[in-house]
Design a protein that fits this description.
It is found in: Cytoplasm. The protein has 443 residues and is α/β, with parallel strands linked by helices. The protein has 17 helices and twelve strands. The protein folds into three domains: 137 residues, N-utilizing Substance Protein B Homolog, Chain A (Orthogonal Bundle); 57 residues, Alpha-Beta Plaits; 197 residues, Vaccinia Virus protein VP39 (Rossmann fold). Strands 5, 6, 7, 8, 9, 10, 11 and 12 form an eight-stranded mixed sheet that branches. A four-stranded antiparallel sheet has the order 2-3-1-4, covered by helices on one side. It is globular, with a radius of gyration of 24 Å.
């Protein structure tokens, strides 16, 4: 059993690490919550995700309720207050538990002397919530960033790119992401797997475009799903499932999955066409271990390569590829609902740096492609600079490249925007795809 207040203390510590120290939630959360029970670990994650989704509003409440700013040496208390208000306002935590357990977190964070302050602020929030909410609503009319819960630079970029859709994109980013599964059709059919889920009382939704995709109505422990250990099913958003479909590797071909970690797309490529020679390459040796684990669980093999996609001379054996999947490093602005810390860690200046890196990698990978071969450029971004504009510039510079039409695509490539299942959307993440073919004509 976790200590009283431990889940709240862990959430505050993780949020401090993300928002004050600049660490990713993927790094901070496991470290902060490692000693918690599974139930407390899940609750800690729920608190962190919710605070990061609506951070401007929670910050606004704290600023209204504190008589004066906290000193820097007790900055952790600020994050304790965010966690407490989050529970009272949005997580439906009983008030006595939200306040009591949040106050109990203070000694665990070496801030016992300020327990009274935390108790007082949270009690005042309870008493004043109605009037505070009215004032917040008024301020939200004056501030798009406060209304959309997005930083100003990102909100402006989205508004420029999608003048009629940007607010819906922000709304989707602020919602919990559905849990999408990919059925391994080498082992079972989607209908048969749905029957297995139904037998366990698990409700699921199918996808009209993808015969492999289902979304669970309620998230749970994926390792407990029927057939998970045996490789019948994997976790993969429906938008990401289009990668292997569009790449459409054929039996006997030599395929490179550049920037492959953690390996979901590598495995899907092999599920569709097992008779391939696949190289799975990434620059991160630690994350490549995940690729190896995913391949082993699914019963597939691939050549795993640690190398720099922008500098193939350090790892490439000189043999050209028939197909290349380039899931390029990007701003990840299409998967904010899965990684809400992206909103607060990413900076406007990062975009130009990422665009330049993508440019280098795309040109380096193009040189590895056979004449007549195809390269699928993909990102989990919704920003045109990383997507369509990147491709337009590449086509201007590279006479051997042509765009292969994709159904539903408009312009240069196919831009998927994040969507909510509840809003009659596809329910997938934001993704971009452009399929390029290399000419067989000698320049």
């Amino acid at each position: 059993m976790s200590k009283p207040g431990a889940a709240r203390a862990a959430a505050a510590k993780a949020l401090f690490d993300v928002l004050h120290e600049g660490r990713s939630l993927n790094q901070a959360l496991p470290e902060a919550s490692q000693t918690l029970t599974p139930a407390d670990r899940a609750f800690c994650q729920a608190m962190c995700f919710q605070v990061l989704r609506a951070l401007p509003s929670y910050e606004w409440f704290v600023n209204q309720l504190l008589a004066k700013p906290l000193k820097s040496k007790v900055r952790i208390v600020h994050y304790v207050l965010l966690v407490g208000i989050c529970q009272l306002r949005d997580l439906r935590t009983p008030a006595h538990a939200a306040v009591g357990e949040t106050v109990n977190a203070m000694p665990l964070l070496k801030q016992k002397a300020l327990q009274g302050l935390v108790n007082g602020v949270l009690r005042n929030f309870q008493r004043q919530q109605a009037s505070l909410e009215a004032r917040l609503a008024s301020d939200q009319q004056k501030s798009a960033s406060l209304r959309t819960q997005h930083p100003g630079w990102l909100q402006k970029r989205l508004e420029r790119a999608y003048p009629d859709q940007w607010e819906r994109i922000c709304e989707a980013n602020n919602q919990p992401a559905p849990l999408w599964l990919r059925i391994n059709l080498q082992h079972t059919s989607r209908d048969a797997y749905l029957d297995l889920l139904q037998a366990q009382g698990i409700d699921a939704i199918t996808d009209q475009q993808l015969p492999t995709a289902i979304a669970l109505q309620k998230a749970g422990d994926v390792t407990a799903l029927p057939g998970f250990a045996e490789g019948w099913v994997s976790v993969q958003d429906r938008s990401a499932q289009f990668a292997a479909v569009l790449l459409d590797a054929q039996p006997g071909e030599r395929v490179l999955d550049a920037c492959s970690a953690p390996g979901g797309k590598t495995v899907h490529i092999l599920e569709r066409t097992p008779e391939l020679q696949v190289d799975a390459m990434d620059h991160d040796a630690t994350r490549l271990q995940r690729v190896a684990q995913n391949l082993a669980r699914m019963g597939f093999s691939a050549q795993i390569i640690c190398g720099d996609a922008a500098d193939p001379t350090s790892w490439w054996d000189g043999t050209l590829y028939d197909r290349i999947l380039l899931d390029a490093p990007c701003s990840a602005t299409g998967v904010i609902r899965r990684h809400p810390d992206i909103k607060w860690l990413r900076r406007d200046a990062d975009i130009d740096a990422l665009v330049n890196l993508q440019k280098q990698i795309l040109r380096a990978q193009w040189a590895l492609l056979k004449p007549g071969g195809r390269l699928l450029y993909a990102t989990c971004s919704v920003l045109p600079q990383e997507n369509e504009l990147q491709i337009i510039e590449f086509l201007e510079d590279e006479p051997t490249a042509r765009v292969v039409p994709i159904e539903h695509a408009q312009g240069h490539g196919w831009q998927l925007l994040p969507s909510s299942l509840l809003a009659d959307g596809h329910g997938g993440d934001g993704f971009y795809y452009c399929l390029l073919e290399k000419s067989t004509d000698k320049a």
